[in-house]
Write a structure and sequence with these properties.
Layout: H1 2-31, E1 32-35, E2 40-43, E3 48-57, E4 63-70, E5 77-82, E6 85-86, E7 89-92, E8 97-105, E9 113-121, E10 126-133, E11 140-145, E12 149-152, E13 158-167, E14 172-178, E15 185-190, E16 193-195, E17 197-200, E18 204-213, E19 221-230, E20 235-244, E21 250-253, E22 260-264, E23 268-277, E24 283-291, E25 297-301, E26 304-308, E27 313-321, E28 329-338, E29 343-353, H2 356-380
Parallel strand pairs: 2-10, 12-20, 22-29
Antiparallel strand pairs: 1-3, 3-8, 4-7, 4-9, 5-6, 5-8, 9-10, 11-13, 13-18, 14-17, 14-19, 15-16, 15-18, 19-20, 21-23, 23-27, 24-26, 24-28, 25-27, 28-29
Length: 383
C-alpha cells in the first residue's frame, strides 16, 4: 500500500511540473512580442534587406530568448546584430524592449516570386516575413541601352547612352571594346572622361556613353556595331546600329580647276567641264544651264546627265560662242549643274579679242590714210 502511495505522489508531482511548465511557456509566449513595421519587402536578385526588429517583453519576469531564422531558402544568408555584435540570444527585462537588426542576403541566382521566412525568439515566438523577388535572377553582366538605333548623315557623331550592370557577387573591372567599319572611330566615356575600362561594384550600374563617328566618305546604309564589356569572369555585349542617311553634294569645275579663257568675237570656244558627285547618295537627272552675256550662245554635250554615283564624276563639253559685235574686254559666263537636291555654279571669265582680219584691215586703213596725207602734201604743199 505504501508503494502505491509513493507512485501516486510521484505521478501528481510530474503532472504538476508539466502544468507549471506549460503555464510558464504559455505566459512567456503571451508576453513576448516581435515587431517590425515592414513585413513584406520587394527586392531584385542580389540585394540585401535590413530589418529593424523590436523584442518586447510585456510580462512581469525577465526572459532570455534564443534567436534564429527558419525557412531560409538555399544559398540565402542572414545575420542578427545588436549594434556591432552578432547575437544569437537576447535577454529582456519586464516591460522593456530590445532592438536587433536582421539582414537577409538574397543571391543573384534566384527565381522570381515570394519567399516566406520567420524569425524565432524562444519557443513559440515568431515573426513571419515575406520577401518578394521582383525579377528572375541571374549571375551575369548586363550591357544595354534604351536607344540602340540612330540615324544621321556622314558628318554626324552618334552618341549612345548605355548602362553596364554588374550582377555578380564580386567587383569587376570591364574592358570596353567595339567593332566599327574601317575609317570609323569609337570612344567610350564614363563620368565625363574618355576611358577604355571601368570598375563596377557588385549589383551596381555605371553609365557609359559611346561616341561613334563614321568615315568621311561613308555610303548611306545601315551599319551594325557590336560593343562588349569584358572582365576576367564575366562579360556583356550588345549591338548598336547607325543608319547613314545619304548626302547630296555636287561640284562643277574644269579638269585643271581654271575658270578663265579667251575668245575672238563671233567665234566659238570649247571648254571641258567636270561634274563631280561629292556626296554619299546617287545624283539623278543632272541638268546643265547657263547665264551668258546678251547675244552669246552656250550649248552642252551632253545636255543632261542621267545619274552620277557617289564619289564619281562625268565630263561635259560646253561650247561658248561670243557675239560677233562684242568689243574687246572681259565677260562673265555663269554655268550651273543642278539636280532636285543640290546645285553648283562656276563663273567663267572670258576675254574677247579682236579678230586678226580686223586688225590687218585697221593697219591697212591707217597706212592708206598716211599715204593719202603724204600724197596731198607733196602735190599741194609747195604752192
Amino acid at each position: 500500500m505504501s508503494t502505491l502511495k509513493k507512485l501516486t505522489a510521484v505521478f501528481f508531482i510530474l503532472l504538476y511540473g508539466i502544468i507549471v511548465c506549460d503555464t510558464a511557456s504559455a505566459a512567456e509566449k503571451d508576453s513576448i512580442l516581435l515587431y517590425t513595421p515592414f513585413t513584406k519587402i520587394s527586392v531584385p536578385p542580389g540585394e540585401s534587406i535590413d530589418y529593424a526588429i523590436d523584442v518586447i517583453n510585456n510580462g512581469d519576469a525577465l526572459v532570455t530568448l534564443d534567436l534564429s531564422v527558419t525557412n531560409l531558402p538555399r544559398n540565402w544568408n542572414y545575420s542578427l546584430k545588436a549594434g556591432a555584435w552578432n547575437v544569437r540570444q537576447v535577454a529582456v527585462l519586464p516591460g522593456e524592449k530590445k532592438s536587433i537588426s536582421l539582414r537577409v542576403e538574397v543571391p543573384f541566382q534566384v527565381n522570381k516570386g515570394n519567399y516566406r521566412i520567420s524569425l524565432l525568439a524562444g519557443e513559440g515566438n515568431s515573426l513571419p516575413l515575406t520577401v518578394n523577388i521582383s525579377e528572375q535572377g541571374t549571375y551575369k553582366t548586363e550591357f544595354s541601352t534604351r536607344q540602340a538605333n540612330m540615324e544621321g548623315h556622314a558628318a554626324s557623331t552618334f552618341n549612345y547612352s548605355a548602362d553596364l550592370r554588374n550582377r555578380t557577387a564580386e567587383a569587376q573591372t570591364y574592358a570596353l571594346q567595339g567593332e566599327v567599319p574601317r575609317g570609323w572611330t569609337i570612344i567610350f566615356r564614363a563620368n565625363g572622361k574618355q576611358v577604355t575600362s571601368v570598375d563596377v561594384e557588385p549589383n551596381s550600374t555605371v553609365n557609359v556613353t559611346i561616341e561613334v563617328k563614321p568615315a568621311e566618305q561613308v555610303e548611306e546604309g545601315n551599319y551594325v556595331i557590336p560593343v562588349r564589356a569584358v572582365s576576367g569572369s564575366s562579360s556583356g555585349e550588345m549591338k548598336l546600329e547607325a543608319v547613314i542617311a545619304g548626302t547630296y553634294k555636287i561640284e562643277l569645275t574644269t579638269p585643271a580647276g581654271l575658270l578663265s579663257s579667251d575668245i575672238v568675237a563671233g567665234s566659238e570656244k570649247k571648254i571641258d567641264l567636270v561634274v563631280k558627285n561629292t556626296g554619299t547618295s546617287i545624283l539623278s537627272d543632272v541638268q546643265l544651264t547657263h547665264a551668258a552675256p546678251v547675244n552669246w550662245e552656250v550649248t552642252f554635250d551632253p545636255k543632261q546627265i542621267g545619274s552620277i554615283l557617289a564619289g564619281r564624276e562625268t565630263t561635259v563639253t560646253a561650247t561658248i560662242k561670243a557675239d560677233k559685235k562684242a568689243i574687246p574686254g572681259d565677260y562673265v559666263t555663269n554655268l550651273e549643274a543642278r539636280t532636285p537636291e543640290a546645285s553648283s555654279k562656276a563663273s567663267f571669265r572670258i576675254s574677247v579679242k579682236t579678230p586678226l582680219l580686223w586688225g590687218w584691215t585697221g593697219v591697212i586703213v591707217i597706212l592708206a590714210g598716211i599715204g593719202i596725207v603724204l600724197y596731198l602734201f607733196r602735190k599741194y604743199g609747195r604752192r
